[in-house]
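New to this. Please check this fold:
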Amino acid sequence: MRSIRRAHRILRALANSVDGLTMTELSAELDIPPSTVHRLVAVLQEHQFVSRQDSSARCCLGPASLQAGLAARRPRVTSSPRAAEVVAGLADASGQGALLVELRGRRAEAVLQRGLGEWAGGYAGDLMPFHAVAAARTLLLDMDDTHVMRLLSEYQFLPRRDRTPGTVVELQQRLDTMRGRGHESVYGEYVPAVWEFAAPVRGGAGQVLAGLAVVVHEVRTTGEQAVRMGERVAHAAMEISTEFGYRV
């Protein structure tokens, strides 16, 4: 417990510093022996809670600390009445289904749904597989490869369709493509002959809060309509994002 308290003090000191702190400064400021500071920082650095530049002896908070901070600040999208209105509007516009998915621990859960019937083949369920549902995949956009690997360390890539990513590497490749265009359009990955259009809902700090998606059967859309629907979902996601303080 003593080591945990000291590690917590180190992180708080780095969070309050402007340009980071050296080992010597941490030891003096926190009244912790230099050898103990070196040992704790090494462990924190190994797990990416602390970063050190090769050209500098100064320590600063690492990406894992940032991700933990964003997670702690992540509001529930369902707290906004506007989110439910947007999901309902997308479902009405598509004539079929729309859903909003949030990250709950290691799972992607559908928290708002509209118009998803039996034809959707499982989209109406609470748990959304990261590899097969674009709305769930959207939740991984902010994570680097190491974080994705850690989150999916016990994840089962259950077979779905030929188009569905079957490994973490394939999923990461899809994420790279999605990051480049900001939204996702997929066909037949979860349910045959069904399109899914998804985009991230972001918070004031730019962090992904949720994945918004429309699900449409191929008989209800054309290629041109699919392009427009993808743009509409991205616009709708931005509309919810502004409710949480996000600005481009």
